[in-house]
Amino acid sequence: MHLARTFKGKDFPNIEDLMNWHGKALGDKTDAMITHLEGLIKNPGADKLPIAAPVNDAPEVNISGVALSAPPAYTKGQKLATREAYGTALAKLATNNKHLVALDGDMKNSTFSQTMLKVDANRFIECFICEQNMIGVGMGVACRDRTVAFASTFSAFLTRAFDNLRMGVISQTNLNVMGSHCGVSIGEDGPSQMALEDLAMFQSLPGCTVFYPSDGVSCERAAELAANTRGICFIRASRPALPVVYDNEEAFQIGKAKIVRRSDADKVLVIAAGVTLAEALKAADTLAGQGVNVRVMDPFTIKPIDIQAIQENAAECGGRIVTVEDHYPEGGIGDAVLATVATFRNIVVKKLAVNGVPRSGPPAELLEMFGISASHIVRACNDIVKL
Questions:
Q1: Which residue ranges make up each domain of the chain?
Q2: Partner residues linked to 152 by β-bridges
Q3: Which of 7, 100, 109, 368 could staple 373 via S-S, CB 3.0–4.6 A?
Q4: CATH class name, domain 258-385
Q5: From 131, 197, 220, 224, the catalytic residue
Q6: Residues 77/243, Cβ–Cβ less than 8 Å
Q7: Is 250 one of the catalytic residues?
Q8: Which CATH number fits domain 79-243: 3.30.70.640, 3.20.20.70, 3.40.50.970, 3.30.499.10?
Q9: What are the pLDDT digits (tens) for 280-295?
């Protein structure tokens, strides 16, 4: 351990360790300070010694056109966690591109980033339980477009690295981040590991692309799109196994939503992602049995969100929208949707989100307790239809 006592403005006469000088220009003291500092130089003339120019022998690499080595291979209705699909995608992308690098915060068996070890252990960087360091290392290996970098850990722990991420925006970093174990649906792991503010955090970063895939197919494609997208990309992954919704051939685009349930008589547009998309589809079945048809939208990306699709589908559903998310109410899907319809008349939005500080428990019970289960969606749709 090293202990150091530091002084602002060290060796500056009448300035060293004084208040009200931090971050200020020296003004009329400039010349005197330069003269004083030059007098402290022990080797005058050293600045005139020949110094060789830095050697720039780093090879140029091509990190464009990164693609999965094989398409998704799932069966509709099959259940698996999107975090597992992320691991599958990581291995496929690494197989197809030797410049792809994976980093993890000692959670590789939970984030499934350990699949990289089977492809090329030399391209896996274990950063242990220091998320700030992981993001910093990720930005370093991605610097100057030398690699396609994917960093992963539990999404809740990325809050520790937010300063590094905001500085990464300033330095125009090109880093992909996967956060798993989002929301109360992680269940018995408890509230310390439930990411409930991560969408708000990443949406606040200028230029950040925020993916929220809802099944294995969309998660693999999200990773592929992230690998080819400039700036910071965030992929939000869930812990519980979710049913596969899409055909393996389904095409995905950034900023383009998917309608997964519709009819010509829909009365409410329900917008959900991840575990709440599965709950929304259950609710749609229940409501259909009650004679209330609802349209279900999977936004796929929360930033950018599909403004046109939301506005058009809301209008076709009588201007009624219900959003439901495994996230706190602030800064998540609901707020993103509200922003898209803020200037439209005759549209009403009802937000369902985790309505309190959570606790540990079975996932299904927590979804019910905190207001984002199928039964709550049914109730919200029936309520909004009456408005």
A1: 79-243, 258-385
A2: 104, 178
A3: 368
A4: alpha beta
A5: 131
A6: yes
A7: no
A8: 3.40.50.970
A9: 999 999 999 999 999 9
